[in-house]
Every structure is written in C-alpha cells, then in structure tokens.
Design goal:
The complex is a heterodimer of chains A (541) and B (303).
Chain A lengths: L16 H5 L4 H29 L10 H20 L2 H14 L8 H20 L18 H4 L4 H28 L12 H33 L12 H35 L6 H14 L15 H29 L8 H24 L1 H7 L3 H31 L5 H27 L14 H30 L53
Chain B lengths: L8 H32 L15 H26 L10 E8 L2 E5 L5 E2 L2 E4 L3 E8 L4 E5 L4 E5 L6 E5 L4 E7 L11 E7 L1 H9 L9 H8 L25 E6 L2 E6 L2 H9 L5 E2 L16 H13 L2
Parallel strand pairs in B: 1-5, 4-10
Antiparallel strand pairs in B: 1-2, 2-3, 5-8, 6-7, 6-9, 9-10, 11-12, 11-13
Helix pairs in contact in B: 1-2, 4-6
Classes of the chains: A mainly alpha (541), B alpha+beta (303).
Chain lengths: 541, 303
C-alpha cells in the first residue's frame, strides 16, 4: 500500500515541539494531557510518599508540622485537580471518543487545545506556590473557612489555580457533549454508542453544571482574603457552614466526575477480553445517568458533624444510600459479563478485576460513612482517607492504568512486555492494599485525619501503611518503566489493527491511527457496539 | 475498635457490625464469583464465548435486594444516631471551647478546666464553641463527634457508662498543631465527681499572669524561651523595640503596656515583622482589664 494522506499516522504527520503544543488534533491533545498528567501524578506520588515517611513513627521524623500540612494540601490539590478530575476524560476521552464514534475529531478542536493550555496555566499556578511567599497553602484541599481566610500561606494562588483549572474541565465537558450529540457516525444511535461514550456523556454534564459553583465559591474566598468581605469568617459576619455547602455542592458531584469515566473503561475492557457482549448494556448506560443525577443531592454527607439540622442529616443519609444502588447494579452487570465469556487474562483485564475488587471495598466502606451513627464516629478519621483512596486510586487510578495498557498498542502501534506488566500489576495491587487498608483500621481505632503526629496506639497500622507505600511505588515504577521500554524497543513485530480482538471502532483503524482517524469507512456491528456474533471482519491492509 | 464508654456505643457499634457484615458478605461473595468465572471460562477451557445480552429478572433482583439492604443499613444508622440528638432535660450543662490548639471547659459554677471531668451514668450536655477556626470535638470511646464552629450553636450530649479516662481529639483540621490538640475526659462515680466539682481551685504560687496565659492557650503560639512557634516569643520582648507592620508599612514600636494591650485587643493592628497576620483572634471580650494587667506583669518577668 502506498503512503497516502490517509495512512500517515498522527505521529509522523508533523514534527517539532510546536506541532504538538499548538496541535488541534484530538489525539495529540490527548497525549499532551497524558504526559502532563503523569508528570503531576508523579509529583503527587512523591508528596504522598513523604507524608507516609513522616508518619512511619509517632513524633517528628523529618518534617516540620507546617511543612507536613503544606505537603498534604498540595498532594490533594495536585491529585484531585491536576490528575484525577482530568485523567480519563482528558487523555482517553480526547484520544478515543471521536474514534469510537467514528468521526475525525471533537466538535471544537481549537477549544480543545485551549482547554489544555488553561490546564497547564492552572497547573503552573498551583505549583508556583512552592517557590514564593510563604509556600503552598496549608489548609487541606478543601480550603475550609475560616482557616483558609486567616492563614498566611499562599491560599489565594492555590484557589485561583483551582478556579482556572475549572474552566479547562468545563470546556472539555462542553466539547464532549456536543461531539456526542452531533458527530456520531451514521447508524450509531445513542443506544448503539460504546459505554465509554455514555460514561463521558454523564460526566460532561456534571462538569458543565457543577464546576461553576466551585469557581464562584473559590472567588468568594479570594474576595474575603483581599477585601475583607465577610462571607465565611464569622469574626467579620460570615458563615463557615455556607462555605462547606457551596464547596460540597460541587465537590461531591466531582467525585462522580472522577468515577464515572472509570466505569466506562471497565465496560469497554471487559467485553474485549471475554469476547462477548456486555451484560445489561442499558442498565449500565442508564445507571451512569442515575449516578450523575442523584449524585447532586448527597453533598450533605460531608457535613454530618458540622451542625446541620437533624432532618437535613437524615435526608442526606437516605440519598447517599440511594446513590449506592446504581453503582451496585453496575458491579453486578460487570461480573455477569465474565459469565460464559472466553476469558483472556491480559494485563488490562487484570487492572479491571483489581478495579472491581478495590472499588467494591471503597464503595462498601462508603456505606459505613453514609449511615448517620457510624459516620458520627468515623467522620474526619483515617477511615475516610482509606475509603476515598480505595475509590479514587484503587478505582479510577487502576482504571486509568488499565486503559493505558489497553489502548497502548493502538496509540503507539507497539507492545509492552506482557509478563513484566503482569508482575508490575501484582506488586502494585499488593502495595495498594497494604498502603490503604491499614488506614481504615487506624480510622476504626479513632485516629483523626490530617494528623502530623499521632498517639502511640496508632503506630502499627501507620507502620504497615508506610511499608505499603514503598511496595506500591516499586510496582508503579516497574509498570511505567515497562511501558516506556516497550516504546523504545526497536524492530518489534507490528501489532496490527486489533491486537486484543476488540470490537469498538478504534480497532478497525491503523495503529497508530492516521491523522484523519480512519483509512477506510468504519463498519458498525449489527446489533449494538458489543455484538461479537456479527463482528465486522477487520482486514489488516 | 476502642472499648465503648457511653450509652451511644451500643447503637453505633451495632450499625457498624450490620453494615460491615453485609458488606463483607458481598465483597467476599462477588470476588469469589469473579475469580471462579475467570478460571471456569478461561479461553483454554471455553474457547467460544456465549453472547448473553442481559436478563431482566436478574436486573430486577439485583436492584431490589440492594435497595432493601441499603434501607436496612440506613435504618440502623438512623436509630443509632437518634439518641444523640435527644437530650434529656436533666443534663449537666458545660461550655466547651476550642481554640488553636487547646480545649477548655467552663462548668456551671464557673470552674475552668483544660480537661473534662464528668459523673458516671449522668447525662452531660456540652455547648460547643470555637474562638478562632473550625475544630471538631471527638471522643472515640463515646463514639461521638461534633464540630466546634466559631459563632455556631452546636452541641452534643452523652452519658458515660464506664469509669475511666478517655482521649478527646480534634477531628477537624485547624492549622499547624492540629494533631497536638488533645485533652481527656475522666469519668468518675457521682460522689467523687461532686467532691471534685465543689473543690475550689487549688491556690498555687504560680504567677496570676501565667495562669491567665495557660487558660487562654497563649503559650501554644508564643514561647517563653525565645523559640519561634507561631507568634513572637515573650522572652525579653518587654521594653525592647520591634519592627511591626501597620497597614503594610513597617515601623518601629516599643513593646510597652500600651502595645501589649493593643496586641491583645486588636491583634491585627501592628503585627511583628515576619509573622503571619490573621491567626490570632481578639481577646477584648475574653480577658478582663485586670487579667491583661497580670499578663503584662508576667511578660515583664520573662527577661
């Protein structure tokens, strides 16, 4: 086959730094996000490891209390605003949503590039707090008032960074909603869309509708710090509880911004490695929308001890339990998808099984926190820290790395060492559970969170947790090293269009995809996106 | 878990066991099924997959059963919580204060303490207050927690049912020394409690200014030995010139009675250079003029 414009892949099309950082190609933008996200992720991991090191023993190990407080704040800000919130949508959504819909780009490619630039500007603002003034904020990523109004650290810059990053999130959400509505390939109805697209659709609506609330709330902090407007600080007439409401009205739905795309990844990877259709397509698709909707009405469960009225606490508790139901439905459908499949236990599937297990631990421990009596006991303890790391890292983080292993051959047209990937997964999985499970135990023992130092009785779980962080980092470095080594290896056999036997449209095109995404018109399977009975034959050339 | 020492412990622990029991059952069950499927339907054993699109009966079952279970969990959570909001009329009422980084308590007879002493098997109601930022009053052994909000009107109550001494911790992040904001609650039999309650504060030869400072947590931020904590040390400060920042402009002031009084009443007006503004609250309505005088006298002795 001759080299025509249709099969020049998107890496070869243009060269040079500017051809990347000013590219409007959704695939290049996806990779820009990937490289920047992973960089910030590694910064966040480093901060996390430092925290665990300080907590190895009671008493001061090597950090000052103030430094420790700044580190956990920056860890939270980086991991939440720079990694988890953009992670799957910005990287894999950007790269694969248009291809999976059978189109050549998102609806607004320039807006897409702008989103990345806004993201980078926000990231630089957040990290700049490290090097000037009194250092990064020491408030915790929640910026609770009135402490955030009083402290002398760089709270203003940190919240402005989060404000700017919010726009990146809003624009990406807007872009995806329009793309999903307008650019599906002929014949692909909503009910024939891959579930990843459904998950992104639900996520995008939350990004679009909830993010402005955090934006205005963070500006209110700045107004209070600069102009002394009494909004949240009671000593000048404000109400600190108002801040908490405003903050969680966004930040709870934001949890679903972080989790829903991961559900989409699981729903893609399971059919591929079982070679069968997903169980309960509609149940999975609609439960995403249900979670996105109900997720708006549960924010009060972050405030059960803050002094809300009794009826409010009860209503928020019920709503919290209700949001568990669509999540449970998803888990059941995923497990049922393994039934009578023809299972090929490759690294991406391992990450998905790890995801399901850890996400269940995270979700079920969330039930303990949704119940009033037990939440009063466990609120703001290490139980909460363990719980959300299970959901965010054990869930979304594992889905992110699973997706990276899954789409790696499609993105780069190369393959990593499968055996090493499996070993890295095993170490990563063990390290993860060793790191976070003892946190839940420490919480059950009564250890509050955001603790620089702790009473001697909490020593054992903290020690195990710190050891676990070393195991986790070993697994992580081995995993990333293996992926990088795969890219550098010369003379690899070609991976072909469809190395895993996947059925969604991205597997019909070349690996890496050409600039226009498809070298020939993609063909939809007859009955829905995972109809393996009528899988179109994929010819290599 | 810690031993339960209040009447709430039973309800809280019961709902914890019910939720954890159901959760562990599903976690283990689903994980086992998942592993079984992965082995049983491995592509070596099962080279051809069967396409099963779904099953409405199953969807209904696994919607209804979790719904019932979560409502059961909600119910037990609510029932364990309900007594926490039902304060008996005869409760002993105590004011509890949080400030960076100290708890303090004020009894109905005006007795001031740093740690809580309560009678066994008698209801006690605490009015929760904060002098600066958010704190959270947490007694793990009582399974109890409620935030201390400045300007807020939060309260909690409990009835201790086991003699002993239990930790009080701050559960809401409140700044630099959050993890050192600790106190304790001692549960005494009623007679011993009453003896303690009636006992006048022991007369010590401590400087009255030092007593005031201890009671108001001055010393958590201002050291007496020259070391820098949050605010300037008191050592050798009296009678010396310091550089302060007034409305953004640096100037020299002499540390005298007037400056110290102003710093206590309007802490933001002249902040010593190199220290953070905004962390200290005004003690204008907390300290009497005599107490401020005592504090100044004591600072004079710290040469």
């Amino acid at each position: 086959m001759t080299s025509t414009a249709l099969n020049v892949n998107f890496f070869q099309a243009k060269k040079g730094l500017f051809s990347w950082i000013f590219s409007v190609d959704h695939k290049r933008i996806g990779l820009l996000y990937l490289y920047s996200l992973l960089t910030f992720f590694l910064v966040g991991v480093t901060l996390g490891v430092l925290m665990r090191l300080e907590l190895l023993n009671p008493g001061k190990d090597f950090l000052e209390a103030k430094t420790y407080n700044q580190i956990f704040t920056l860890h939270g800000v980086i991991m939440i605003f720079l990694f988890i919130i953009p992670s799957i949508p910005a990287v894999f959504g950007n790269f694969f949503l248009p291809i999976m819909l059978g189109t050549d780009d998102v609806s607004f490619p320039r807006l897409n590039l702008l989103s990345w630039w806004i993201y980078i500007i926000g990231a630089i603002m957040a990290l700049s707090t490290l090097i000037w003034g009194d250092g990064p904020a020491d408030t915790g990523w929640t910026f609770y008032a009135p402490y955030s109004v009083k402290t002398g650290t760089n709270v203003t810059m940190s919240v402005l960074a989060a404000f700017v990053l919010g726009f990146s999130s809003i624009l990406t959400g807007l872009n995806f909603i329009v793309t999903i509505h307008r650019l599906r390939t002929p014949g692909m109805t909503f009910m024939k869309m891959p579930l990843f697209a459904w998950a992104l659709y639900a996520t995008s609506w939350i990004q679009l509708l909830a993010t402005p609330i955090i934006g205005i709330t963070l500006l209110m902090i700045v107004a209070e710090r600069f102009f002394g407007i009494g909004l949240f600080d009671p000593s000048i007439g404000g109400d600190p509880i108002l801040y908490q409401h405003l903050f969680w009205i966004y930040s709870h739905p934001a949890v679903y911004i972080m989790a829903l795309p991961a559900f989409g990844i699981v729903s893609e990877i399971l059919p591929t490695f079982t070679q069968r259709t997903i169980f309960g397509y509609k149940a999975i698709a609609f439960s995403s929308l249900a979670i996105a909707f109900v997720g708006y009405f549960v924010w009060g469960h972050h405030m059960f001890t803050a002094g809300m009225s009794g009826p409010a606490r009860i209503i928020f508790s019920v709503m919290t339990f209700l949001v568990a139901i669509p999540t449970a439905i998803k888990v059941f459908n995923w497990v049922a998808t393994l039934y009578k499949g023809s299972i090929d236990l490759q690294p991406p599937l391992l990450y998905m099984l790890g995801f399901i297990f850890q996400f269940m631990v995270g979700g079920l421990s969330g039930l303990v926190l949704g119940a009033l009596a037990t939440d009063i006991y466990l609120h703001d303890t290490y139980f909460v820290v363990g719980h959300f790391h299970y959901v965010m890292f054990g869930g979304t983080g594992f889905a992110f790395f699973g997706a990276l292993h899954y789409w790696y051959p499609k993105i780069w047209g190369k393959m990593y060492n499968i055996k090493i990937a499996n070993i890295a997964f095993a170490i990563f999985f063990v390290g993860f559970n060793m790191l976070y499970f003892p946190m839940m135990i420490a919480g059950l023992m009564g250890m509050p969170r955001r603790y620089y130092d702790y009473l001697p009785e909490f020593h054992l779980p903290n020690m195990i947790s710190t050891f676990g962080s070393w195991v986790l980092v070993t697994g992580l470095l081995l995993m990333l090293g293996n992926l990088i080594a795969g890219l550098r290896k010369k003379n690899q056999p070609k991976v072909g269009r469809d190395p895993w036997g996947g059925i969604t449209l991205e597997w019909q095109t070349l690996s890496p995809p050409p600039v226009q995404n498809f070298d020939r018109m993609p063909v939809l399977p007859k009955d829905g996106p995972y109809d393996y009975e009528h899988k179109p034959v994929i010819k290599e050339d | 878990m810690r031993i339960g020492a209040s009447t709430f412990a039973e309800g809280v622990d019961l709902s914890l066991y019910i939720i954890a029991g159901i959760s562990i059952f599903f976690l283990v069950g689903i994980t086992a099924v998942m592993i079984y499927f992965v082995i049983r339907y491995n592509k070596k054993r099962n080279p051809k997959a069967t396409n099963i699109e779904g099953n409405n009966t199953l969807e209904v079952i696994w919607t209804v059963i979790p719904t019932i279970l979560v409502l059961v969990m909600f119910y037990y959570g609510w029932m364990g919580y309900k007594p926490m909001r039902t304060v008996p009329g005869n409760a002993i009422e105590i004011n509890a204060y949080g400030q960076m980084w100290k708890f303090s308590f004020e009894y109905p007879n005006g007795k001031l303490t740093d740690s809580l002493v309560v009678p066994l098997n008698r209801p006690v109601k605490l009015y929760l207050n904060s002098r600066d930022v958010l704190h959270s009053f947490y007694i793990p052994a009582f399974r109890l927690k409620e935030d201390m909000v400045p300007g807020g009107k939060n309260y909690l109550w409990f009835e201790a049912n086991l003699k002993g001494k239990y930790d009080i911790l701050c559960a809401e992040y409140c700044g630099q020394l959050h993890s050192y904001m600790l106190s304790s609650v001692t549960v005494l039999p009623v007679e011993e409690y009453e003896a303690w309650f009636e006992k006048a504060p022991t007369i010590t030869d401590e400087h009255p200014g030092l007593t005031v400072m201890k009671q108001n947590a001055c010393l958590t931020c201002h050291s007496q030995d020259g070391s820098k904590i949050i605010g300037p040390s008191f050592k050798g400060i009296y009678g010396h010139e310091v550089t302060v920042v007034t409305d953004g402009i640096e100037r020299q002031v002499m540390v005298d009675d007037e400056y110290i009084t102003r710093s206590i009443k309007q802490p933001g007006s002249d902040v010593v250079q190199g220290y953070m503004n905004g962390l200290m609250v005004s003690y204008e309505n907390v300290l009497t003029d005599q107490q401020i005088k005592d504090v100044i006298e004591y600072i004079k002795t710290l040469k």
